[in-house]
Amino acid sequence: MLAKKEIKLYYFSGTGNTLRIAKEVIKQFDIYGYKSELINMISIEPAKVRLDCIIGLAFPVAVQSTNPLVWNFINELPKSKKTPIFMFDTLEAFSGGVVGPVKKVLKAKGYECIGAKEFKMSSNMLISEKKAKERDEKNLKATLEVKRFVEALIHGEGKWRRIPVFSDLMRNISKEDLIWEKLNRKIKVDRTMCVQCGMCAKYCPTLSIKLTPYPSIQKSCISCMRCVNICPKNAFTLKDRKVFQIKEVPVKELGSINN
Fold first, then answer.
1. Direct distance between the N- and C-terminal alpha carbons of the chain, in angstroms, rounded to an integer
2. pLDDT of residue 132
3. Among 249, 179, 170, 184, which residue's Cα sits nearest to residue 219?
4. Among 109, 122, 175, 194, which residue's beta carbon has the most beta carbons within 10 A?
5. Helix, strand, coil abundance in the chain, percent, nearest 5
């Protein structure tokens, strides 16, 4: 049985899917009488994470792993003496290079890895109307899986598998700067649509958008797609195509290091 300690769930959410699931996880823990709190990864230094509670990590999958912002947070967590920790991610199809590698890092730091889960959800930047119609069923299924995940953690039945060689190879793909730069180049701005409101720059989690005066994507971009998703004029294109924006949560809830 999971000890009735306070739960601190640290999350990063690009366009809202991860935050949606994180809220459901917190809600389920609350039902079981656990005091819990959601904390945005971009709002705290990893070294200041408290170790006298139960820690959760939540983030989206990217490049079959996760983005550099999340990895930096995980790698900079303080060493622990058996602090219970769990993780979950949101993804559209497949990862392979995150669950095992995260466990490897955390175990080396002394954490007790109590469970991991991957929630399959629809992207919030859809390039076809057909996929937009299919998203609700997929996302509802993911939300319903939260209850079982939390119950497994509470009853000590959580699973956190690791396939050493395969998962480590998949993780290595996301370490390459070139792959992120390649993804960045797929994000473009239609200047005829842009009104230079600055929202994209304000809410970019890595300060990777410069207004000159139109948005310019910098190399530090982690391809979280937040700018594509939140633009009030839908001025961004992905792979030269307009997207069907799905605003899963209010943009203010996603957080900004500019505030």
1. 40
2. 66
3. 184
4. 122
5. 40, 20, 40
Quick one: residue 33, left, alpha or beta (phi over 0 = left, psi -120 to 50 = alpha)? left
Identify whether the C-beta of residue 96 lies closer than 8 Å to the C-beta of residue 257: no
| Amino acid at site 128 | S
Q: What phi and psi values does residue 84 have, to the nearest 5 degrees?
A: -65, 135
Residues 6+ apart with CB under 8 A from 97: 63, 64, 65, 167, 168, 169, 170, 171, 172, 173, 174
Name the 3-class secondary structure at 194: coil
Q: Are strands 84-91 and 215-217 parallel, antiparallel or unpaired?
A: unpaired
Cα distance between residue 252 and residue 250, in whole Å: 5
- Could you give the 3-state DSSP secondary structure of residue 256? coil
- Residue 230: both structure tokens together: 């939140």
**Do 183 and 145 touch, CB atoms closer than 8 A?**
no
In a 13 Å sphere around the CA of 56, the CA atoms on its Cβ side amount to 32
Tokens matching residue 16:
């809202």
| Residue 61 vs residues 12, 154, 193, 211: alpha-carbon distances, Å | 11, 25, 30, 28
pTM score, two decimals?
A: 0.94
SS3 191: coil
Q: pLDDT tens-digit profile of 3-54? A: 999 999 999 999 999 999 999 999 999 999 999 999 999 999 999 999 999 9
How far apart (Å, rounded) are the C-alpha atoms in residues 259 and 243? Answer: 28
